[in-house]
Design brief:
Elements: H1 3-11, E1 17-21, E2 34-41, E3 44-51, E4 56-63, E5 68-75, E6 85-94, E7 97-102, H2 112-118, H3 122-128, E8 147-149, E9 152-156, E10 168-173, E11 181-189, E12 192-196, H4 206-215, E13 225-229, E14 232-241, E15 244-257
Parallel strand pairs: 1-3
Antiparallel strand pairs: 2-3, 4-5, 5-6, 6-7, 8-9, 9-15, 10-11, 11-14, 12-13, 14-15
Length: 273
Amino acid sequence: MDTNLIQSKFEKLGARAKVRPLVPNRWRQNSGPVVIDIGTDRRGEFFDVQATDDADVNVLDLQPKDRHLLLMVRQPADRPGLPDTKDKFLCGHDERHWFVAGVPESAPVSTVTTAMEALKPELVRNLESGKKGKRKKRHRRKTDTFIRQGEWFFVPAPGVTADEKLVLQNEPLRRGRGKPHTCEFLYRVGGTTVYVCGQYPNGLTDKERKALFKRNPAAVKWNWQAMQRDPTVFVCGRVSHADHATILLGGWHRVAMNTESQSRAMAAVAFLD
């Protein structure tokens, strides 16, 4: 790995990168040869890239004007004859802060543009399919198909009529332990009931939680909260977040999250907004 070259690529974005040996951490034992975080020091934010000595880290594409680059980490296969593992990360700047997102392996990605396309929810890609016009315009935070705030996409749903009794006010929209996006009005339909606490931010089903209680009776006293996993969600009104400009949605919009959670590479991303 050419540390100086990688740092110079980030500098072309107007960013700083600190590349250093991978520090063992028992909380991320399955992260692989590289861990990427967004750190902060007296000079502001920087990309904290930790890598093993044998990690093969390269910048595949660099777009200084858009302040984005595509990073690839190659890891040799465990057995001869198998293909090497290639994890890709989109690194860049979104509104007020730097970010890093793992790119799903299911899509052929070699540029910043194709990485941004791969990170779009299937709902958005289907709606954009067949549309004419420059692909680059589809990466703006507001298009004729969606409005985006961070990892969340909001797609107009003019035909939706919400049950007023089920509409929640100032409801958080969050991914894992990340800071929530607060929605002025939110309406959920369907989904699977899961139970969430600090130890299990993504939730457990009733069956999984009961099995946990048998293994660890003390878990009964954890602060559990019933939530819906993977429901169809609609929001309207103001959507706010500490790291993003508040957006105003006129009428109901369907909510879709980007696809970074589907990528193997996300195991190496320590930063969540």
